[in-house]
Amino acid sequence: MQQQISVITLGVTDLARSRRFYVEGFGWTPVFENEEIVFYQMNGLMLGTWLQSGLEDDMRRQGLSRPGAFALAHNVAHLTDVQPLIDQLALAGGKVLRDGDAPPHGGFRGYVADPDDHAWEIAWNPAWTIDEHGAVTFGL
User: Fold this and answer.
1) Are 125 and 140 in contact (CB under 8 A)?
2) Which of 85, 88, 70 minimizes the C-alpha distance to 124?
3) E strand or H helix at 59, and its extent?
4) DSSP class of residue 110?
5) Which residue of 2, 15, 23, 94 lies most exposed, with the fewest beta carbons within 10 A?
6) What is the tens place of the pLDDT at every residue in 72-110?
7) 133 - beta bridge partners?
8) How far, in Å, CA of 134 to CA of 119, rounded?
């Protein structure tokens, strides 16, 4: 089976507020939107922000009490890009969870939550390359 993720869908309570965070904070452009969902074309997958009531209904039907704990990550090309992006995301409605710092395993990272408390790691990893399309390649 092919290793890939097609769509990541985040439940949100206010679509306009969420759209502001992703458009003004990250600078992303929606490729489709209606009154229930906004899709962003990523490098090889889609990110969808969907009004949470619909997402919760679908998950309850499957017997899930809640989604698992996770953080999404956005890697940047330079260490000096981490904190400015965290600050920009905060100005666009995000909440800083941790300012940029160097973890014991190397690199540089910080965390910000979107308006619906989805955690985003903003990171620079010196062992990863990011191509012109935003694809990240693991390598040491």
Assistant:
1) no
2) 85
3) helix 52-61
4) E
5) 2
6) 999 999 999 999 999 999 999 999 999 999 999 899 999
7) none
8) 20
